[in-house]
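Anyone up for a design puzzle?
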């Protein structure tokens, strides 16, 4: 006979796999914000500092902090009584009143102390953003997916290296030609670091666009191959899509980081100060010289920028290949499908246990 403990074990596995929306009756008020109660409580109490002012002496700010703490605790105590809870208790669920109190009550402190309505808006908007982040991170299992991926980092690395070896001849020709041209060095030497970061973000968005366009049909195939049971709902498919995107990001990060480190090492050996002078390139904001086997080596900001650029190009190529090249796509998705098959099987058993438990409860109210 099904028990609540068995259901809890299945639900815990879904959470650890970064698929919390596989849990039936998953609720933001009970399952998302309550799990973030320590974080929300810490931020709520820390915002008592909003009652202070840089213009006041220390002892006045001390009383302001105590007064702000009293306002926050008193306001939440009143809410608890209105919601039928003991005034000192933490909420067992976060509904609209609790979230509104978290957003608005700390934002009132700057208004009460110095009539700072601009700070009121700043604190309120910051708290709203925090609530949105908590909803996204906890609700869609971003932490669980990341931890799950880190636990399998060895297999992910092996899979990434295996795929990279297939692409290595073309990638090496493409990358080495770029790396050994003065134009490439001149372009990246003149780019601020922030611009290189922007290029990396832009390329990441492009690769994500390819993934988003390919994911619906790939999800249909994965669900058809691995699933046995009711089809996934829209939010569950979204949860699975986010999980697959994080998996791909981790593989791309491993590959691009490895390529970047390789070209830093290669540049140390191949690009001397004489080459910098010949190409008319500055080492950048910083540089360090070493000697290896009586040969001078130069590690510079420009070398790191160029290697980062090559890594960004490689990451874009690799991420697109994972979804468009039949060989890479099959390997990536076959590995994913093999791991998800067990989760889909557990979901089928979980739904059957829920139905059995519901029938038993209905028969013996």
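Challenge accepted. My sequence:
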């Amino acid at each position: 006979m099904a028990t609540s403990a068995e259901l809890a074990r299945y639900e815990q596995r879904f959470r650890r796999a970064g698929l919390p929306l596989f849990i039936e009756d998953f609720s933001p008020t009970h399952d998302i914000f309550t799990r973030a109660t320590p974080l929300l409580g810490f931020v709520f109490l820390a915002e008592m500092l909003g009652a202070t002012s840089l213009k006041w002496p220390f002892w006045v700010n001390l009383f302001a902090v105590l007064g702000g703490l009293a306002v926050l605790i008193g306001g939440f105590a009143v809410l608890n009584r209105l919601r039928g809870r003991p005034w000192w208790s933490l909420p067992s669920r976060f509904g609209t009143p609790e979230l509104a109190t978290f957003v608005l009550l700390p934002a009132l402190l700057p208004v009460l102390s110095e009539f700072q309505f601009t700070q009121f808006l700043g604190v309120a908007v910051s708290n709203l953003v925090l609530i949105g982040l908590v909803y996204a991170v906890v609700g869609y299992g971003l932490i669980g997916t990341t931890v799950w991926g880190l636990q399998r980092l060895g297999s992910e690395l092996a899979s990434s290296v295996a795929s990279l070896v297939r692409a290595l001849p073309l990638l090496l020709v493409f990358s080495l030609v770029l790396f050994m041209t003065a134009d490439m060095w001149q372009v990246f030497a003149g780019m601020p670091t922030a611009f290189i970061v922007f290029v990396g973000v832009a390329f990441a968005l492009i690769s994500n666009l390819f993934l988003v366009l390919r994911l619906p049909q790939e999800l249909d195939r994965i669900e058809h191959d691995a699933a046995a049971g009711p089809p996934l709902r829209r939010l569950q498919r979204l949860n699975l899509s986010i999980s697959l995107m994080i998996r791909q990001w981790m593989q791309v990060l491993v590959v691009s980081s490895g390529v970047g480190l390789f070209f830093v090492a290669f540049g140390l050996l191949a690009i001397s100060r004489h080459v910098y002078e010949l190409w008319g390139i500055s080492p950048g904001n910083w540089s360090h010289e070493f000697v290896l086997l009586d040969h001078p080596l130069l590690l510079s900001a420009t070398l790191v920028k160029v290697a980062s650029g090559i890594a960004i190009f490689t990451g874009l190529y690799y991420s697109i290949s994972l979804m468009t090249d039949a060989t890479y796509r099959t390997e990536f998705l076959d590995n994913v499908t093999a791991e998800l098959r067990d989760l889909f099987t557990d979901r089928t058993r979980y739904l059957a246990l829920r139905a059995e438990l519901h029938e038993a409860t209905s028969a013996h109210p």
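A detail worth pointing out: The chain has two domains: 20-139, 142-363.
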